[in-house]
């Protein structure tokens, strides 16, 4: 058995900054309303065809590869987490393989939305622990802005999401006291429709029993979120899965050096921080600057925290996510 260790991190966000005031010009909203409910001040949106889910993932991946100290040819496998692929199929994993000019390594796409990066890390960890692969590229990337309803009707969702990408290199670690100690994954599909896009693309033709064709009020191709219900479930599941991971490794809340929660809503992160009695140096949030970037949010935040020196060798780092599905999970890491 081996452990897997994060040896390289990188992220990329588009240059185009969209503030709350910018959104107030195209829908009935304002900065105070958005910050009070979400904590978000601004987010990034792609503004050209040059930035795609794949291309942003590739840019983040190149940074992570460079920082890992391995050559791109050393990558054995690719795992790409996203809910916003460039194509309905194939997924972006193979596009990354092509764009990086890699040999014919395997590529896997993960569709677990906000918990996608946690799920992808868990899969990579298992492949490395069993000895199947040595270096795995894991990417979380999203382009939300091209699929949101930027009208007053859609403001409850559209003000939340942003675009961006993050990446990590996981490599084999023989010291079993270091690296990823454990991962913990869960789902509860009975609430799938509480946070969902019901009828994207080709799916539209199969939901005529739910929504009549040519209905001018049809919103099925836009994201739907039952915000209060999602919030109530999120704070419970976040707490549970963090404690599950700590207990599995004989750790206490006080052992957490850095918690990187999925950046869904600043109020959720603050609730968990207060419940666990963690100080500001033990929790990293950047939703204020980027909004909710779904599968990209944890790798972007993890990279930023590491770049700022907030994560050091020997630290206990916890990643936790909850989102559409419902799916949720945690990762416990000894840095």
Considering the chains and any ligands shown, give keywords for the structure.
multifunctional enzyme, 2 domains, 10 helices, 335 residues, globular, 13 strands, Peroxisomal Thiolase, Chain A, domain 1, four-stranded mixed beta sheet, alpha/beta, fatty acid metabolism, Thiolase-like, 23% strand, single chain
Can you characterise this structure?
- With 335 residues, this protein is an alpha/beta fold.
- The chain has two domains: 3-176, Peroxisomal Thiolase, Chain A, domain 1; 180-334, Thiolase/Chalcone synthase (Peroxisomal Thiolase, Chain A, domain 1, 3-Layer(aba) Sandwich).
- Helices cover 31% and strands 23% of the residues.
- It has ten helices and 13 strands.
- The longest helix is centred in the last third of the chain and has 22 residues, at 227-248.
- Residues 201-211 have low confidence and may be disordered.
